[in-house]
């Protein structure tokens, strides 16, 4: 259950004068809600976004072959945008999830739903899947929290989609959350792709070609992007499949300072 903010002074003053609002959502209501969720996702129906609260907390964990895990948390509004932009591709590759061992724990107007989720597109069993569903004052149920786990690279023997399609989907998903500030002087403004190449486009707030030469920028940034590309469980699989990564840094005047290309050979293999 999410933390609730403390009641305001006005609420405290009038509460003795009004009857408390009773919100009752039976286990069956939550069960039917989850069945609706499964039905919409299986049908690749974009209406599933209506089941999420805009301020929901959506957390995804991606686990690499070495067991290392990276997590990303976004809002329900961001997740809705991702669903809208990626649902056609999900249908194309038949990205379905099957749920078993479903458990619904109801407390007042909130239910915590846990299940074992099998992803057909990844040949992966997510035993940590969970969602929190909450009833609002008008008894409308909304997902307010969700957690999912997936592998960095599909466990299937045959990949359901080629690298080009994967990168196109990745770019659409990332760009929904951009621009974003990386540090005090760097902003990621967009990503793009061309075949098997994924490009990151940055702006360096404190520099132009007059204050940072290409040679100095390369010496400073190249070791960092190589380390990131080769060690990240999200990026290394792209290189292992024959793809490449490009990091483009422009100055505040939008003039390119340096462009860094990374392929698998940069990782020593």
Biggest sheet character? 6 strands, mixed
Please state the CA-atom Rg, rounded to the nearest Å.
23 Å
Strand order of the largest sheet: 2-1-6-5-4-3
Shape: elongated
What is the terminal separation in angstroms? 47 Å
Unreliable parts? 1-25
Residue share in helix: 25-40%
- Measured by DSSP, the beta-strand proportion falls in 35-45%
Tell me which CATH architecture of the largest domain applies here.
Answer: Roll
- Can you tell me the CATH class of the largest domain? Alpha Beta
Provide the residue-averaged pLDDT.
Answer: 83
Tell me the count of domains: 2
SSE ordering: HHEEHEEEEHEEEHHEE
Question: Structural class, from secondary structure content?
Answer: alpha+beta
- Counting DSSP H or I runs of 4 or more residues, the number of helices is 6
Report on the structure:
By secondary structure, the chain is α+β, with helices and mostly antiparallel strands. It folds into 2 domains: 23-151, Nuclear Transport Factor 2, Chain: A, CATH 3.10.450.50; 166-267, GMP Synthetase, Chain A, domain 3, CATH 3.30.300. 28% of the residues lie in helices and 37% in strands. The chain contains 6 helices and 11 strands. It has helices at 9-14, 27-42, 76-92, 163-175, 214-231, 236-240, and strands spanning 52-63, 69-75, 97-107, 110-119, 124-135, 141-151, 180-183, 186-194, 197-204, 244-251, 256-262. Strands 2-1-6-5-4-3 form a 6-stranded mixed β-sheet. It has a 5-stranded mixed β-sheet with strand order 7-8-9-10-11. β7 and β8 form a beta hairpin. α3 (76-92) runs antiparallel to α4 (163-175). The radius of gyration is 23 Å and the shape is elongated. The protein starts with 8 loop residues before the first helix and ends in a 7-residue tail after the last strand.
